[in-house]
Design goal:
The protein is an alpha+beta fold and 441 residues long. 45% of the residues lie in helices and 12% in strands. The chain contains 17 helices and eleven strands. The chain has helices at residues 2-6, 45-77, 93-99, 107-119, 127-130, 138-150, 156-167, 191-205, 214-225, 258-261, 278-291, 304-316, 323-332, 356-366, 377-389, 393-403, 412-420, and strands at 9-15, 19-26, 32-39, 173-178, 181-186, 272-274, 293-294, 339-340, 343-344, 350-351, 433-437. Helix 2 (45-77) packs antiparallel against helix 9, helix 3 (93-99) crosses helix 4 and helix 3 (93-99) packs across helix 7 (156-167). The protein is extended and about 90 Å long.
Amino acid sequence: MDSLINNEVSIGFDIGISSVGWSVLDCNNGDVLETGVSIFSGADGARNLNRRNARQARRLLRRRQTRIKDLRKALKQYNFIDDVDESLNINNQYELRVKGLTAQLTDKEIAAILLQIAKHRGISYDLGDLDDEDDAGTEFKNSINRNRHELRTKTPGQIQYERLTKYHQVRGNLEINIDDKSFLLRNIYPTKAYLDEITKILTTQQQFNTKVTDEFINEVKNIISRKRDYFKGPGSEKSRTNYGIYKTDGRTLDNLFEELIGKDKFYPNEYRAAANSYTAQLFNLLNDLNNLRITSTEDGHLTKQQKLTIIDTLKNSKRLSGGMLSLIAKVTGTNKDEIHGYRTDAKDKPDIHSMATYRSIRNKLLENDIDINEWPHELLDKIAFTMTLNTEPGEIRKQLHKTIADYQEITDDVINILVDNHKVFDIKTNNKWHRFSIKLM
């Protein structure tokens, strides 16, 4: 036994995705001393999805419970109910919500309808943004558009009460028939529509109830509308974690995804630019033009004026006929075979930047009589950063209002157009961020 313990052995492993095989060999004589295998369940991406969905459901439930708890405290504070845990067994809050738009409600009726809305407060973004989802089918879009149309003249409560009275159903998918045509109704409305309804109801109740103050209305709306932005991640100012924007080293980021962007090597405090920004596209174009060699010219380089002509042509052309080599040859008065120094793609064809994304964006917005050639470059860079950093239309809208609303070129209609056409800003490769910052370029 002692001789075996003192022997040198070689241990080997064969590691797979759902098993680990192992063996032990005697180094002196090559004998196999031991072998075996451990088998376990392989990784499954679907399980990750299930865990995320379950975690999201727990968070939504926990936050809803907290929202209702806080609203009950506010209702008690303003003397609409006597106890935080008081049961409000009132039938048909939908009818009360319609009644409250024009007639007096009791304190408990006000409390009941506010708690109902707090429990089912809708989605945090506009229905138009929801309609833009990739997986939204025609039937789904039609039901959403029907809701959008009805919200022009009615509150969510009025629509819901009307459907409850007529079809005896509010929630879930409701199939109806009109003139032998089948339609699907969905109980989906934005939080903003519910907040507008609350404002209308409580403004009416101010005529009858001195407890309904402006302060009370604002507090109720703040409780019902509050939502943790997805880009903040977990943690808070008082409970910091490196998994969210509140870092343990004291830093607080604006957006959790900023860390994924990376910083400029030469300006460590500057984020890398969005690849679809005006500055990044112009930089890449000029870099390619500077590398070109033209045998028929005096010094073999493009002149400044030729570069400006190429840039101006690209910015004002809806289509680039013949490609970049043809454009360069036309501007310089040379043949394409006299142009060298450009990169080539996988098919050995010339690969010269042409500000393609910028031109696509301009062409799309021109359909709405908006010419981004007239906009300052700083504005274009900020829009590109926002479009690349955020993915959801609702969040894009919010961030655009936050970052560019002060520019004279920007109106609510312009922001709506940008959000509606946000996909035209997509870069078709994985290189969505430039190596350099706007400052460096």
